[in-house]
Design brief:
By secondary structure, the chain is of the alpha/beta class. Helix content is 37%, strand content 23%.
């Protein structure tokens, strides 16, 4: 961002401008990973293969998201635009309601995760075709998906070793 800001003004970015900021931030933190950052209808979808976990990327980009859901007393409250965010020395409204993150794993890495989970349960890991279509045990499927989303690619090589 190159706009200057006085103390009494704010910068309002479009979804496309916010996507550019997200792309630059992700590239700076994870230079070896190719991220796809797509804008549509006030939201941004980020997708990538391998690299950092979904959880890691969500933590990096949550500052850019304007809407959120709060759970209080069993009632979901949808908040509108959040307060301005200090970013690069400016007060910024990023103009994005929601950011969705979708990480995929290579066949090799998905098999590593499935083998690790299945070994822990005394089961045989399903084929890659069954893994990709989720045509296997629901319990194992949920654990594979959770571990795949929470594990950085660099940590997958350590699965199954002590």
């Amino acid at each position: 961002m190159t706009q200057a800001l006085s103390n009494d003004k704010k910068v309002v970015l479009s979804t496309a401008q916010t996507a550019k900021e997200i792309r630059n931030g992700l590239k700076g933190k994870h230079s070896g990973v190719k991220f796809s950052v797509i804008c549509k209808a006030g939201s941004i979808t980020i997708s990538w293969e391998g690299g950092p976990s979904k959880k890691t990327v969500e933590q990096l980009v949550k500052i850019f998201e304007g809407s959120c859901v709060e759970l209080s007393g069993g009632i979901d409250l949808i908040k509108g635009s959040k307060d301005l965010v200090e970013h690069q020395g400016m007060l910024v409204d990023f103009g994005v309601d929601y950011i969705f993150c979708k990480r995929t794993l290579s066949d090799e890495d998905l098999v590593k995760v499935a083998k690790y989970v299945c070994d822990r349960h005394g089961r045989v890991a399903p084929s890659i075709e069954r893994l990709r279509t989720r045509n296997y045990s629901y319990e194992i499927s949920e654990q594979v998906e959770r571990l795949a989303n929470e594990t950085d690619i660099d940590d997958l090589s350590g699965l199954g070793t002590s």
